[in-house]
Write a structure and sequence with these properties.
Blueprint: H1 4-23, E1 37-40, E2 49-52, E3 68-73, E4 76-79, H2 92-99, H3 112-115, H4 120-128, H5 132-137, H6 143-146, H7 152-159, E5 167-172, E6 180-183, E7 188-190, E8 203-209, E9 212-217, E10 223-226, E11 233-235, E12 247-253, E13 262-268, E14 273-277, E15 282-284, E16 306-308, E17 311-316, E18 321-326, E19 332-336, E20 343-351, E21 354-363, E22 366-375, E23 380-386, H8 389-392, E24 401-408, E25 410-416, E26 421-427, E27 432-435, E28 450-456
Antiparallel strand pairs: 1-2, 2-3, 3-4, 5-6, 5-28, 6-7, 8-9, 9-10, 10-11, 12-13, 13-14, 14-15, 16-17, 17-18, 18-19, 20-21, 21-22, 22-23, 24-25, 25-26, 26-27
């Protein structure tokens, strides 16, 4: 013990020097409070000295580190390296702050004398290329911006912008005339706060073109045109041919936008048809159905018409196939195309000038949604895709019904049975299937049942 006393005094002196060194630091001085004590453990145990910090925050500072002295053998002492605190997990934000250089946040104020000279046409060019939902958020900035959809120059800017993905205008069983808009890019429903059509009649969306949607009342008597975004509304004049039976409807543009006018065609199973021209605001009967087209047409009213390069295509049966009408020349044609076996609830679709067929393929107890493409040389349907098998398993043993709510580039399909109700979309180009979230009104919790709908390309400047 006498031999160890000199070494013990030397160790205490070194420890005091260390304490004085840390006490002189202004950063760590606030941590070295009186409760930091120098404790001596019994020599028969570890014969070690340590600085014990009772403040939990002390251990978090790198500059104030504990020094530990251990006795390895009787009579010998050695100063070890400072004990480093255990590694702590850093957040992703802290890691990114170390990786990225310091970027000064600009707080520069927009000078009025500079920005007041900014050309108005550039404002309109930028605004025309913003997402539709963004535009509606800042319409309240000024009256001028709120009136942009009625501006001719803004309409010209919007005509230069191509909206890739269509939206869907749908109606529910409880709110027929209000409608709900679905944006497949954001996978979000939009619910207008006021009805699109100021009429008490029940109307159904049957066609669309250039951002406008065509409606017909359930009595097949009146037609209406509406822009679902701006709520611009127009009731078409009465038809010259009094046909109250169910009709198939198609709609095409005269040019690149609604400013150049549009045409609407209705055709009945008995061969009666009329064409509406928005320029003349009147219905005309161009002629009668040619003898090469078999009557009655037995039109498939569940299938919406498709428009490709000014030609409308309708699905018919007996014989199975397609009839087409060229808006420019007024020519009718008939194509006999046999349907795939075990097919039901089929409808036409189009993408990039190509005609497609979508329907339910049922065999035994298995049901699946399939996509076919029309081969122009052979006039036969060729299967190109089908719904994933894991989704089709949900339909096994169930009697399914399908309604196509939009057939322009992206399909929206309503799949229903007594036990289930599904909404899915199918992107024809990317061949991607996606489930659609439930349509729930903002002021309620009840899921709405989609009954009818159509696809349309949103356009702020489309005028009815």
């Amino acid at each position: 013990m006498e031999e160890e006393l000199p070494m013990l005094r030397q160790l205490i002196a070194q420890s005091r020097e260390v304490l004085e060194l840390f006490a002189s630091s202004p950063y760590c001085n606030r941590h070295l409070q009186p409760h930091n004590q120098l404790l001596q453990l019994p020599p028969q145990h570890h014969r070690s000295w340590c600085i014990v910090d009772l403040d939990d925050n002390f251990a978090k500072d790198d500059c104030c580190k504990s020094f530990v002295v251990r006795a390895e053998k009787p009579g010998t002492f050695r100063m070890l390296e400072p004990c480093k605190p255990p590694p702590t997990k850093r957040s992703r934000k802290q890691k990114n702050q170390q990786r990225l250089p310091d970027v000064a946040i600009s707080t520069e104020i927009m000078e009025h004398h500079i920005w007041k000279e900014f050309p108005e046409d550039l404002f309109e060019a930028v605004i025309a290329r913003l997402p539709i939902t963004t535009f509606f958020r800042f319409r309240c900035v000024s009256r001028k911006w709120n009136s942009l959809p009625s501006s001719l120059s803004f309409s010209q800017q919007c005509a230069q912008v191509t909206r890739a993905d269509p939206w869907f205008y749908t109606i529910t069983q409880e709110y027929v005339n209000s409608g709900a808009l679905y944006n497949p890019s954001l996978k979000k429903w939009h619910h207008p706060t006021f009805p699109a059509l100021p009429t008490k009649l029940f109307v159904l969306p049957v066609a669309s073109a250039g951002g406008l949607v065509c409606f017909i009342d359930t009595g097949n008597r009146s037609f209406y045109i509406c822009n679902p975004l701006t709520r611009a509304f127009k009731e078409l004049p009465s038809r010259s041919v009094k046909v109250w039976s169910q009709v198939a409807v198609g709609m095409v543009l005269n040019g690149e936008s609604t400013g150049e006018g549009y045409k609407i065609l209705w055709v009945a199973s008995d061969g009666e048809y009329e064409v509406y021209d928005s320029i003349d605001n009147s219905w005309t009967c161009p002629g009668s159905m040619p003898t090469t087209v078999k009557l009655p047409l037995s039109l498939n009213f569940r299938s919406q018409a498709v428009s490709i390069n000014g030609t409308l295509y309708f699905m018919r049966s007996d014989p199975d196939g397609i009839i087409s009408y060229d808006i420019s020349s007024g020519d009718w044609k008939q194509f006999v195309i046999p349907l795939p076996l075990h097919l039901s609830d089929h409808t036409l679709a189009q993408c990039g000038g190509q005609i497609l067929l979508v329907g339910l393929l049922t065999k035994n107890a298995a049901t699946c949604v399939c996509i076919w493409e029309l081969q122009k040389m052979t006039l036969l349907w060729k299967e190109v895709d089908r719904m994933p098998n894991i989704w089709c398993l949900e339909f096994y043993g169930k009697h399914m019904n399908m309604i196509c709510l939009g057939n322009k580039g992206i399909l929206m399909l309503s799949l229903r049975s007594r036990q289930m109700n599904r909404l899915v979309t199918y992107n024809i180009k990317s061949r991607e299937w996606q489930k659609v979230p439930s349509c729930i009104l903002p002021w309620g919790r009840k899921r709405q049942w989609i009954s009818r709908g159509t696809a349309f390309h949103p356009c702020l400047t489309a005028s009815a």
